[in-house]
Amino acid sequence: MDSLQCLPVIKAPNKTPKRRAISSWTILAAGEVKFNVDGASLGKPGQAGIGGVLRDHQGNVIIRFSRSVGVADSNLLELMAVKEAFILFLSCSRLHSYILNIESDSRHVVCWVLKPHTTPWRVRHINSHIENLKQQMKDWRIGHIFSELNCR
Fold first, then answer.
1. What is residue 152's three-state secondary structure?
2. Alpha-carbon separation of residue 32 from 81, 95, 98, 100, 102 (angstroms)
3. Does the reported pTM lie above 0.85?
4. Which of 3, 17, 129, 142 could form a disulfide with 102 if both were Cys (CB 3.0 to 4.6 A apart)?
C-alpha cells in the first residue's frame, strides 16, 4: 500500500520571482553535433570536475566525458570544459565534417570564447589554447543555455 504524508505549509516571503525565458534543447540540422558542457565544485573554490556530452542531430550520444580537475572556481571550470570539448571533437576524425555547437551555462565563458580580449588574465592561458583549437575547426558555434536545460 502506498503512503502519503502531508507536510506542513510554510509561508514564503513576499518576493517578486525572477522571470527567465524558457527554452528547450534545440534540434540540430543534419551535419551538426552539440556538446553540452558543465563544471562543478564543492565550494568556491573547491574540489572540482568537468563533464560534457556530445550528441548528433538525432540526440544519439557520440562522446561523454567527465574528469576531476583538482581545486578550481566555477568560471575556470566552465572554460576548461569548453576547451575539453574542442579537444575531443578535434581528436575524433570522423567528426571533422560536422559543425560543432557548444552549449554552456556560463554567460561569461560564452562571451570570453567569442571575444577573447575580454577574458580575465587569470584564465587567459586556457582561452589562448581554445583560440588555437578554434583555428583548426571547419565551423563551430557556442551559446548560453540555462543550467536547468544543460542536461539534455
1. coil
2. 19, 9, 5, 6, 11
3. no
4. 142
